[in-house]
## 1
Amino acid sequence: MDDMTLKDTGKRKKHIFFVEDDRSLINGLSFAIKKQGFEITIARTSAEAEKMWANGNYDLVILDVSLPDGSGYDLCRKIRRASKVPIIFLTAADEETDIIMGLDIGGDDYITKPFKLAVFLSRVNALLRRSDNFSQADVELNSNGLKVQLLKGEVYKNGTRIDLTAGEYKLLCLFMENPNVVLSPEQILGKLWDCDEKYIDSNTLTVYIRRLRTKIEDDPGNPQNIVTVRRMGYKWNTMD
């Protein structure tokens, strides 16, 4: 695996929670991460991970999908009930359905094995950087009867809470933070995932937008919030 310098993104050491049962991978990645100045806590089973998660304070979670006593998907769901901590799936499960599920239930990135260390570290950095920027943002977004409480990760439409997947939530925040600005599909994908993986393409984005519209639009068939700008992309149309 390639080597790469990984810079800390803040004064306090970032603490990474790594859930993986492959000892050779654990040894290689933990050495590389520690070498760059990060702290790392390792769990090898789902039960061990749940206990360590409850007792720790982490800046990033790296999850394998297949664990000896359970699924990384289930662990992701449990973490998402209480936290918006960035989550990366690092797994050999490379089917499109696996990737979509991982992103839909709350994963922020999905890396399949085998992988290059330089790419992995770059994506870890990107998530930590985006998390830092997110924590420094305004605590609330308001537009068109929609309210996003950033610190809680909650979304309300006309006072009623609506449930969004992690991908839908990030997409909504991106649009509301850029009102009346036309965003191309490439710009949106770059902002959301910071990578150019083939499985994250315009077709995937179309699915995310369609799902989001069904939850936030009064008439999803005639959207007024997220409007399509032909041959250019999409924009958040403010009506306040």
Note: DSSP finds eight helices and 13 strands in the chain.
## 2
Amino acid sequence: MTDRRKSELHKSELLRRELLIGGAASLATLSAGRALAESAPPAPIGIWSERAPMPFPVQEIYPTRFWREPAEMTSFKPHLEGVLVNAGGLSVYEDGDFDVSDRVTIYDPISDSWGEGPRLPEARHHIALVFHNGFLFAVGGFYADDRGIWQMQTSLWRVESLSDRYWAPQTSLPIPQAESVAASVGGHIHVVGGRAPAGSLNASWGDHIDTDMHWAYDSGSDRWAPRAPLPTPRNSATGSVVNGLLYVIGGRTVSDGNTPVVEVYEPVSDRWQKCAPLPASANAGAPKGQSGLASAVWNGKIYVFGGEWQNPTTAGVYADVFEYDPRQDKWRAVASMPRPRHGLGAVALADGIYVCGGATGPSGQGTCNYLDKFEI
């Protein structure tokens, strides 16, 4: 064999070896990349972004969505824009002082700005707003003066337009009831569970007990009627309506603290059923089940936000956000709140769920004016 032929064979062998070594390295790199991808935690489901803050810090709120019809139509189809409306609420300051509000604030997602609506006839916290049959209703809540800040009320007020000057009184609740779930479902406003006076006293937190009372309000006749009681009496729960069914989620009891219980009400049969309970929190030391939480419906699913817990040894607020699929009766965790809090509100508008107000610490600590948008 000639020297030239030997040289060519040697070069060929060196090239083959380089290819083998390079290929093995590439395979090793690819395998390592795959292993890293498999071991890495999945990206959180959902996106959070900050929006224009509320006009003032406030917690213990129950805002709602309100539809407004522009004065001039640009097409033959009705064009409705949803806005977020909040009424009243509680502000707790660092020095321990507090303030109960009568202000009604309105958020427009198109301009990302806040405005003012008709003030409540009386300052309230924990007052529930419900948009029903074209009217905005304000139900119950607590009144505060020198006698105490937990004076539970029975009042029911309504306005037809956010430009109205005054709220019109309607027939009051049959009994004082607050920290309840209030929602429009089945052609009525339903007020479910919460707290009620334990006896003749009704001024401080210790004067109340959990109640299972469930009332339905007919706005046409301006009358209340009893409905099937809530199977698990509790307060500080949240409620959402999907496909004509009312879901009451979480909350707490006076004697046993937070509960993960979820129950659903069917208005035609006037019956309750149990659903899959809330999942365990990712917060270390937090009990299963949130209270002082909020919820909203998006694309047929319920999203539950935040809340608080208070144990003899620990207390805190939840960052957890859970998604509930009513068709499968299943929960899953989605992207946590970047600014955890309780006593907050959650309202679904055209482009996402808006989470507003609340307190960043347990027991009313850290009242905030945050507004965050959640998209999924």
Note: The mean pLDDT is 88.
